[in-house]
Write a structure and sequence with these properties.
- The structure is a single chain.
- This protein is mainly β.
- It has a single domain (about 15-170), classed as Beta Barrel (Lipocalin), CATH 2.40.128.20.
- The chain is built from one helix and eleven strands; from the N terminus they run E-E-E-E-E-E-E-E-E-E-H-E.
- It has one helix at about 150-160, and strands spanning about 15, 20, 40-45, 55-65, 70-75, 85-95, 100-105, 110-120, 125-130, 135-140, 170.
- The strands form two sheets. Strands 3-4-5-6-7-8-9-10 form an eight-stranded antiparallel barrel.
- Strand 3 and strand 4 form a beta hairpin.
- The relative contact order is 0.27.
- Residues about 1-20 have low confidence and may be disordered.
- This is Lipocalin/cytosolic fatty-acid binding domain-containing protein.
Length: about 180
């Protein structure tokens, strides 16, 4: 009934002999996972086959637990299936601009994620590869709808990376 999907934080990985990276860009520095606690609703993402069936609600909840900082990722499957999928895991380790999510019940999303930008409130931009040679990007905020302020910040950061928000899929949050 519930299944976990991770939407946030992806990093540099090697895939089939090809390096997946974000090119020469200034990534966010000073990532603090304790400031990242709370629910992050996904608003935009790179098109990718792993998430094609998820529509209507997708979020990650980060919280302190006995084993560190845990994450609960939730996604609503296409209306034909009409179910929530939930995965659970932890931030296994982190650096100044990356963190590794280890999911206990869904290894597809266990990966290192790169923090491309966040103000810990109105927006978060993370990237990763997940078996792709081209990096994927996820954009989220603490609200079910992204504020104009958050979107403006995201657009400015994406422009520095030669990315356009219009090239990303919009994630509907109407079933959350």
């Amino acid at each position: 009934m519930l299944y976990l999907v991770t939407s946030l934080f992806f990093g540099v990985a090697f895939v089939a002999g090809q390096e997946c990276n974000f090119g020469d860009l200034e990534t966010f520095v000073g990532f603090d996972p304790e400031k990242y606690l709370g629910t992050w609703y996904e608003h935009y993402r790179s098109p990718n086959p792993e998430e094609e069936s998820y529509v209507g609600c997708e979020f990650d909840q980060y919280f302190k637990s006995d084993i560190g900082i845990s994450v609960l990722s939730v996604a609503y499957s296409k209306p034909a299936v009409r179910s929530f999928e939930v995965s659970s895991g932890i931030i296994a380790n982190y650096t100044d601009n990356t963190f590794f999510l280890q999911y206990f019940n869904d290894p597809t999303w266990s990966s290192e994620y790169t923090v491309l930008g966040t103000d810990y409130t109105t927006y978060s931009i993370v990237g990763g590869c997940l078996g792709n040679s081209d990096p994927l990007v996820w954009i989220a905020s603490h609200e079910k709808e992204m504020t104009d302020e958050g979107k403006e910040s995201v657009v400015a950061i994406l422009e520095k990376m030669n990315l356009n928000i219009d090239d990303l899929e919009t994630v509907d949050q109407s079933f959350c």
